[in-house]
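can u do me a favor
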């Protein structure tokens, strides 16, 4: 009998710990700093590891980058609108009610997550340079595209100047460490290649801490008291259907494109995931009076995507080395 995956057990433990012992509010700024530090270390090590020509080749791969953006900002909103329409055909309330459906549709408008997409792509031995390019471009474009897509679904009055600040945050926490890693690649590159545990610890550590931090915030905001259990189950089912559709579409599309398996992994992980950090930030500006319930579907989707994609990443990581070389 195969032993359970230790990393997956750590993710489950992080959720249980946050549910029964969430991080106190007074300590949350320190937890946020720790999360940011781990993410910055991850990008620094990735920058020290990756060769510059690999990044340039990734930008040139316009099919992969274009398909990732298409799925994130076109296919996802269409899937959300289709699920919304079907649910309201079957029930006048759509089973979930207007507020939770607003959260589902807002989820579909968000950009791809950066840190976990890249971490899982790295874990699965996919095309990490392409993942960095795809996830970063998705988040920068999402600053403009997400509010525009939200405007198509909702009649809201919230406005705010969060675009420049979000770009600065991305540059400070993600791009700057990566650039620093590239600058010292000549000296740090051999060290990182010799001690691969540095990459492994930064990848897995950032995801585990991110899960605990995100779930702690939701629990302290009354996650288990404000929403009836039956609605939470309904949101979980809707999120699971949405994630399954996204993973299936990215898998089939990768096969049809006849890419290498590394590019398939990048498309699947970057195209099927949604950003929690950007989503919470944008929701607080776009929906100032109802951001809490709006981000609930995103919170559940975030946990689902981490668990499911971790299992998929571990499956990809166990493939023989010879399978990674030739394109299909």
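np, heres the sequence
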């Amino acid at each position: 009998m195969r032993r359970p995956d230790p990393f997956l057990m750590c993710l489950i433990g992080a959720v249980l710990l946050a549910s029964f012992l969430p991080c106190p509010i007074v300590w949350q700024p320190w937890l946020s700093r720790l999360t940011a530090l781990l993410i910055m270390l991850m990008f620094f090590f990735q920058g020290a590891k990756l060769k510059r020509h690999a990044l340039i080749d990734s930008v040139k791969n316009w099919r992969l980058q274009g398909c990732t953006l298409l799925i994130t900002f076109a296919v996802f909103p269409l899937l959300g609108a289709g699920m919304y329409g079907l649910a309201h055909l079957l029930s006048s309330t759509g089973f979930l009610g207007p507020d939770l459906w607003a959260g589902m549709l807002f989820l579909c408008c968000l950009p791809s997550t950066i840190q976990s997409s890249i971490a899982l792509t790295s874990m699965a031995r996919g095309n990490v340079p392409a993942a960095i390019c795809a996830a970063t471009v998705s988040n920068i474009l999402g600053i403009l595209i997400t509010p525009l897509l939200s405007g198509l679904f909702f009649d809201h009055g919230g406005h705010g100047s969060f675009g420049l600040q979000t770009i600065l945050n991305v540059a400070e926490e993600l791009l700057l460490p990566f650039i620093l890693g590239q600058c010292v690649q000549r000296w740090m590159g051999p060290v990182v290649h010799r001690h691969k545990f540095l990459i492994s610890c930064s990848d897995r550590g950032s995801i585990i801490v991110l899960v605990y931090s995100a779930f702690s915030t939701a629990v302290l905001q009354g996650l288990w008291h404000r929403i009836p259990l039956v609605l939470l189950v309904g949101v979980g089912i809707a999120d699971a259907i949405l994630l399954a559709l996204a993973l299936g579409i990215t898998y089939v599309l990768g096969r049809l494109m006849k890419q290498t398996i590394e590019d398939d992994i990048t498309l699947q992980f970057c195209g099927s995931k949604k950003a929690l950090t950007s989503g919470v930030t944008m929701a607080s500006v776009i929906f100032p009076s109802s951001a809490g319930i709006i981000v609930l579907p995103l919170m559940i989707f975030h946990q689902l995507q981490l668990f499911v994609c971790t299992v998929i990443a571990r499956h990809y990581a166990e493939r023989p080395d010879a399978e990674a070389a030739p394109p299909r």
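Residues 62-90 form the longest helix (29 residues). hope that helps!!
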